[in-house]
Amino acid sequence: MQNFQGVGVSPGRITGSVRQMPKPVGEPPSGEKLAEGISPEDAVVRLKAAAQAVHDELKARADTASGDGKAVLEATALMAKDTMLLKSAGKLINAGTSAERAIWEAGASVSEMLHNLGGYMAERATDVLDVRARIVAELRGVPAPGIPSSETPFILVAEDLAPADTATLNPAVVLALVTSGGGPQSHTAIIARSLGLPAVVAAHGVDGIADGSEVYVDGAAGFVSVEPTDEQRALATAWAETSATLAAFDGNGTTADGHLVPLLANVGGAKDAVAAAGLGAQGVGLFRTEFCFLERDTEPSVDEQAAAYKAVFDAFPGKKVVLRTLDAGADKPLPFLTDATEPNPALGVRGYRTDFTTPGVLERQLEAIARAASESEADVWVMAPMISTAAEAGRFASLCAAAGIQTPGVMVEVPSAALTAATVLREVGFASLGTNDLTQYAMAADRQLGPLADLNTPWQPAVLRLVQLTVEGAAQEGSGREGAAKPVGVCGEAAADPALAVVLTGLGVTTLSMTARSLAAVGTVLKTVTLEQAQELARLALSAPSATEARDWVRAKLPVLEELGL
Ligand SMILES: C=C(OP(=O)(O)O)C(=O)O
Ligand SMILES: [Mg+2]
């Protein structure tokens, strides 16, 4: 039996067989020629057969997929038979280039051409690059890149997942996610929580598990073991029963003694919003607008944006929807806003800062938001990501006012904003703590790096102290005005951890926003403590010498977690 310890990022106990995510396809060497004895005619026939096989495989997957995933797969399947692509590869083969190199180069030039055409065509540019990699894999006889297709359920093991992988991840067959890289705030973690899949990240060595091996995954404990024991199988069966009873949130976030903490959802688009409303979310605490445009090379028009935003607002009539302006950069690059050559993207021009280098995009986005809000019944609040100073907050508020938006706010995810929360909040109406980035910047630990996962947890007492300082700053600002303190919510992944949700409540945050799948677990656990008990647990966590002890001490006082397998 082989065991692996990683970081648990999405609870659940499950057994299943492993499929490894294939490594990306490497570029065939430049100048690679046809092998001795292979005629250009034969090579063209081989290439066409490979392209046909790629087409058929993608088409078959599209036929069983639904929604966005289906559309992506259909478009990519068509590209595999694109005559321009195959003709230009054929020309290169006739001039003596190997089939692999020929399709690689032909793919690059077709992709560039589509890119230059702009608009809808430009969106197809990445499909061509995907297709050429698949054809090269087929020619080499190695597995196609991306999430493996399978009729039978499996546990996906990968180095890490990118936001774009969500489109082709079929939650009906992927049982759990295990990665050797990634941290607790990585996109693998975010994707897993949003799909309700048990997940373990930063589990060093799991890339060595053979395809088809049977494993047990505990997404709360961060544990993976090959060849599950009878006891582990029993735990997995018990979890299946618990998760069924936890499936519903009654739409009322409160402590045992009636202190209200509305539980909101993090969404990336209309589909998530509709699902979140169905799961009882009391509103949206974070609408990640960049997720609507991740694959785009060009700025979406105001009309297009307004339609995307309204579709989310319409899922929550009469309820609060906190929209975040584009947070492009670092882990979420948007080609039309971010410079891919920056040496330190996490410390670079990202989030609100893209307004320094690409002025106008933010104003147009605010125009689209204002229009969508005026046509919907949602209570729309708007916040900017990566605000570092009160001056930035003030400028964002005036841009919002100019667009007719009444409730501007900021994300507090840079330590400087937490440390100066009183002056930052003087400029805007609310703050939302982005604990994913706040942790990354407080601990100077890239949220995407597996080896830094132990540093990169919001259980770090230093991060909890920054949360406390933000709440205190809001109270101080409120007392200066003789009004109530401005709301400070949490929308980072910390809010989805039921034990941490209790601590955050004890620290005084006013709302918790999370993937809708976590609402039931957080709602259930929150109802087992009074506000005073939550405050006591917050003090305990703050006094801990390490993140591990903070988590262990708090969990030991919340036996309900173990009972529910959370
Ligand atoms: C909610 C956050 O934003 P994102 O994960 O999108 O960076 C955060 O940083 O905590
Ligand atoms: Mg962030």
Automatic annotation (TrEMBL):
UniProt catalytic activity: L-histidyl-[protein] + phosphoenolpyruvate = N(pros)-phospho-L-histidyl-[protein] + pyruvate
Subcellular location field: Cytoplasm
Region feature Disordered, mapped onto this chain: 1-35
Keywords: Cytoplasm, Kinase, Magnesium, Metal-binding, Phosphotransferase system, Sugar transport, Transferase, Transport
Keyword Acyltransferase in record: no
Chief site of localization: cytoplasm
GO molecular function terms attached to this record: phosphoenolpyruvate-protein phosphotransferase activity
Residue intervals of the Phosphotransferase system enzyme I N-terminal domain: 5-124
Keyword presence, Metal-binding: yes
Cofactor(s) this protein requires: Mg(2+)
E.C. number(s) listed in UniProt: 2.7.3.9
UniProt-listed InterPro entries: PEP-util_enz_mobile_dom (IPR008279), PEP-utilizing_PTS_enzyme (IPR050499), PEP_util_C (IPR000121), Phosphohistidine_dom_sf (IPR036637), PTS_EI (IPR024692), PTS_EI-like (IPR006318), PTS_EIN (IPR008731), PtsI_HPr-bd_sf (IPR036618)
Residue span(s) of domain PEP-utilising enzyme mobile: 153-222
Domain PEP-utilising enzyme C-terminal: 254-528
Function in brief: General (non sugar-specific) component of the phosphoenolpyruvate-dependent sugar phosphotransferase system (sugar PTS). This major carbohydrate active-transport system catalyzes the phosphorylation of incoming sugar substrates concomitantly with their translocation across the cell membrane. Enzyme I transfers the phosphoryl group from phosphoenolpyruvate (PEP) to the phosphoryl carrier protein (HPr).
Similarity comment: Belongs to the PEP-utilizing enzyme family.
Entry protein name: Phosphoenolpyruvate-protein phosphotransferase
Organism: Paenarthrobacter histidinolovorans
